[in-house]
Amino acid sequence: SIGYSTVSMAKVAQGYGGTITTIEYDEQSAQQAIKNFRYSGVAECIEVIIGDAKEIIPTLDERYDLIFQDVGDKTLYPVLFDRLVALLKPGGVFMAEDSLFPVMDADISKPADVDRMKRMKRSFESLEEFNRMVAHNPCLRSTILPIGDGLTIGIKTG
């Protein structure tokens, strides 16, 4: 979104001569993130790609040491998962934010809440599918840490 997590990771990556590639769907958020990267002194080690992750990720051919997935649309987690694991180097780390994301309470007597509950149900079902995919992936040794809304961490084996 606006680069908060990316700035933290970039400060570490800089110390090792590393670089970060980040994908942002929303142009306005991407521009704010770029400003934040400049302000934080990490812009030179970050490549920002603006567009739809579903279209961009299949075109990537670089192998990564770490992949951090934090997509607002949680239904994308299982859609992107296999390709993201394929992009990891052996020994690489896969992380996914909000993997235990809760379903919020809503008053289903209100039309707006009915729509929100339908979206939340789709998100919840997608995260359940994603968590099963992670747990059963033979290329990952993984766990979910119950921190905040959940943090999945996996190490890619040979």
Compact description:
The protein is α/β, with parallel strands linked by helices and 158 residues long. Helix 4 packs parallel to helix 5.
- The CATH superfamily of the largest domain is identified as Vaccinia Virus protein VP39
Query: How many separate domains?
Result: 2
- CATH topology name of the largest domain: Rossmann fold
End-to-end CA span:
32 Å
Overall average pLDDT: 90
Helix content range of the residues, please?
A: 40-55%
H/I helix tally: 5
User: Would you state the CATH class of the largest domain?
Assistant: Alpha Beta
What class would the helix/strand composition place it in?
A: alpha/beta
Could you give the order of the helices and strands? HEHEHEHEHEE
Secondary structure: elements and pairs:
Layout: H1 4-15, E1 20-24, H2 27-40, E2 46-50, H3 53-56, E3 64-69, H4 76-87, E4 88-97, H5 111-136, E5 140-145, E6 151-156
Parallel strand pairs: 1-2, 3-4
Antiparallel strand pairs: 4-6, 5-6
Textual characterization of the structure:
- With 158 residues, the chain is an alpha/beta fold.
- It folds into two domains: 1-51, no CATH class; 65-158, Vaccinia Virus protein VP39 (Rossmann fold, 3-Layer(aba) Sandwich), CATH 3.40.50.150.
- The chain is 43% helix and 24% strand.
- The chain has helices spanning 4-15, 27-40, 53-56, 76-87, 111-136, and strands spanning 20-24, 46-50, 64-69, 88-97, 140-145, 151-156.
- Strands 3-4-6-5 form a four-stranded mixed beta sheet, with helices on one face. Strands 1-2 form a two-stranded parallel sheet.
- α4 (76-87) packs parallel to α5 (111-136).
- It starts with a helix and ends with a strand.
